[in-house]
Specification:
By secondary structure, the protein is α+β, with helices and mostly antiparallel strands. Helices cover about 40% and strands about 15% of the residues. The protein contains seven helices and eight strands, in the order αββααααβββαβββα. The chain has helices at about 5-25, 45-50, 65-80, 85-90, 95-100, 140-145, 195-220, and strands at about 25-30, 45, 105-110, 115-120, 135, 165-170, 175-180, 185-190. The strands form three sheets. Strands 5-6-7-8 form a four-stranded antiparallel beta sheet, covered by helices on one side. The protein has a two-stranded antiparallel sheet with strand order 1-2. A two-stranded antiparallel ribbon has the order 3-4. Helix 3 (about 65-80) packs across helix 5 (about 95-100).
């Protein structure tokens, strides 16, 4: 076995240890992680050291109180949503005990396919005719990745953009273009034909984004 092979095997064992620690020891990812126009490695710390106090052990309540809190927070950000959406976002198996425990707190709807959508009772739910402003989203934004059914925001023909690291532009709440940035220029690639009003709105938001990115570089 050559030196190169030994190094590779040692690296694999190290990665297994990292995954085991993350599964067994409460940790938190600490800043800096996302940097403007730069990349940074992941930095983790024990949750107790980050909070400055001991972390209570996980409760053994079969109703999963931690899952209940997670479900409420998810719905506060992404509701109305299905249990499948919650599962896709969290990577957990749908949190059935948690959802069942708080179901009486929630309101339910049906979408056009007959699927049950859950939400917090006092959550904002704009009228379907409300015009959504143009927004430039970063790669892997939760507005897209927060759902199992992503057709609510992105056409099936462009679904791969959500996992390919593409930055997208929302026009009236749906993915309508991609964008890149280089030097002091934001470049927009439409995925469909824009109306004159849409083009004006996209260009205006692009100017705001360019100014923001330029200022961020100057002050970094």
């Amino acid at each position: 076995m050559g030196p190169g092979q030994q190094q590779v095997e040692h690296h694999v064992v190290g990665q297994q240890h990292v995954r085991a620690i993350a599964a067994l020891v409460p940790t938190v990812q600490v800043p800096p992680r996302g940097l403007w126009r730069a990349k940074a490695g992941v930095r983790n710390a024990r949750l107790s050291s980050w909070l400055g106090c001991d972390v209570d052990p996980l409760p053994e309540d079969g109703a999963d109180p931690i899952g209940q809190a997670l479900t409420r927070r998810y719905l506060a950000a992404f509701g109305p949503a299905t249990v499948a959406d919650l599962r896709a976002w969290s990577g957990l198996a749908g949190l059935p005990a948690a959802v069942a425990a708080i179901r009486d707190e929630l309101v339910a709807f049906r979408d056009e396919h007959g699927r049950e959508l859950l939400d917090l009772p006092d959550a904002p739910r704009p009228d379907p005719g409300t015009l959504a402003p143009v927004r430039f989203l970063p790669a892997f934004d939760n507005a897209i990745l927060g759902y199992q059914d992503r057709s609510r925001i992105i056409d099936d023909a462009h679904r791969n953009l959500s996992v390919a690291g593409e930055r997208v532009v929302l026009v009236d709440g749906r993915v309508a273009a991609t964008w890149t940035v280089g030097a002091d220029t934001v470049t927009i690639t439409p995925l469909r034909r824009f109306t004159r009003a849409e083009r004006t709105a996209v260009d205006e938001e692009a100017r705001h984004l360019t100014a923001f990115l330029t200022d961020a570089v100057r002050t970094s």
